[in-house]
Amino acid sequence: MNNPYPYSADNKRYLTYNHYLKERFGAKVYRIALDCGAGCPNRDGVRGSGGCVFCAEGAAARGKFCGMESAALRAQFERGRAEISKKCPDGPYIAYFQSGSNTYGELNEFAKVFEQALSFENVIGLSIATRADCVDERTADLLAGLSGRTYLTVELGLQTVHDETAAAMNRCHTYDEFLAAYRLLHERGVNVGTHIINGLPNETPEMMIETAREIAKLELHMLKIHLLYVQEGTRLAEMYRRGEFAVQQRGEYVQTVCSQLEVLPPKLIIARLTGDGERGRLIAPQWSLKKLCVMNEIDKELVKRGSWQGKFYQK
User: Fold this and answer.
1) Do residues 230 and 240 touch, judged by C-beta distance below 8 A?
2) Is residue 299 within 8 Å of residue 273, measured between CB atoms?
3) How far apart are the first and last CA of the chain?
4) Residue 183 CA from chain centroid, whole number
5) In Å, what is the CA distance from 252 to each residue of 203, 211, 243?
6) How do 282-284 and 230-231 pair as beta strands?
7) In angstroms, what CA-CA distances link 294 with 249, 271, 289?
């Protein structure tokens, strides 16, 4: 099939993370998720309490990060590497600090953890997840130093550009705060990624596409598009059971994602197009468990439209 999108060797009509990493490093790269004990200011009362309504209690419920035993971090890495070795014995790997806000707390202690991760076998980069309100000048300087030595991506959670939605979700920071953190990092040459969520309560597909249009104005390195899924142990589950909102149907989600891809920059890395709820805790939508089907439907819809990432992008 002739693919009109020029930036993919895997016949996708959008720039996959897998394709980008293969082009950059000459091999498939695997990410190993690490939990260094980071907390979240949206849980401990500094910015809010209880966290975002879609998040379950867990590691992010801790207070500020104050350090971690190096042996514990290495043990996590080795477990992850052992699992990946079933597919690929030697990596290369990206150390992915996924859980919590990984710049919230003692910055010098975070620096030690990041340095240790870079010392692990065949680690060629870092991916650090955090919140926009956990990035200041000092943090940005530290991350810029790391960026000068390795392949670094800082993932700033956003979810939506609509502040009224963010407030209803107890996000506890604004889009302007996100932009401030983005600028601190971007002006220092740090790769910035972000996450958005489709299907947030009271948002229309047009609002979700507007989120894509707004972030398309930035020079982001990477984007993850999630769907809103409802899991046990969240305030979102209580809202869902009270009938306060309905989850997106698969067809509507596919249409929304394709319309978002069309307005995004053609060279923006798309690291995710759907979400992964825990099978044992997922309440809705159950169709999200068939991830491959969702991905295939997105591919088919782009072909049906005669479309691709960036088709309607306006710089």
Assistant:
1) yes
2) no
3) 29
4) 18
5) 13, 16, 19
6) antiparallel
7) 11, 15, 9
pLDDT in tens, the chain (315 residues): 579 999 988 899 999 999 999 999 999 999 999 999 999 999 888 998 889 999 886 545 567 888 899 999 999 999 999 999 888 878 899 999 999 999 999 999 999 999 999 999 999 999 999 999 999 999 999 999 999 999 999 999 999 999 999 999 999 999 999 999 999 999 999 999 999 999 999 999 999 999 999 999 999 999 999 999 999 999 999 999 999 999 999 999 999 999 999 999 999 999 999 987 889 999 999 999 999 999 999 999 999 999 999 999 998
Cα distances (angstroms) measured from residue 27 to each of 117, 127, 163, 273: 20, 18, 40, 22
Q: Which two tokens stand for residue 16?
A: 């996959």
- For 190-215, b/e burial (b = at least 16 CB within 10 A) is bbbbbbbbbbbbebebebbbbbbbbb
Only one residue has tokens 């200041």, namely 136
Sign of CA dihedral 265, 30, 294, 100: negative
Cα Rg of the chain (Å, integer)? 19
What is the edge-to-edge ordering of all strands in the sheet holding 151-159?
A: 30-34, 93-97, 123-130, 151-159, 191-198, 222-227, 269-272
Number of Cβ within a 10 Å radius of residue 250? 17
Return the beta strands (E) in the chain as ranges. Answer: 30-34, 93-97, 123-130, 151-159, 191-198, 222-227, 230-231, 269-272, 282-284
Tally the residues of the chain.
Answer: 315
Which H or E run contains 258? helix 250-263
Residue 32 near residue 97 (C-beta atoms within 8 A): no
Amino acid at 252: E
* Conformational region of residue 139, where left means phi above 0, alpha means psi within -120 to 50, and beta covers everything else: alpha
CB 191 within 8 A of CB 222: yes
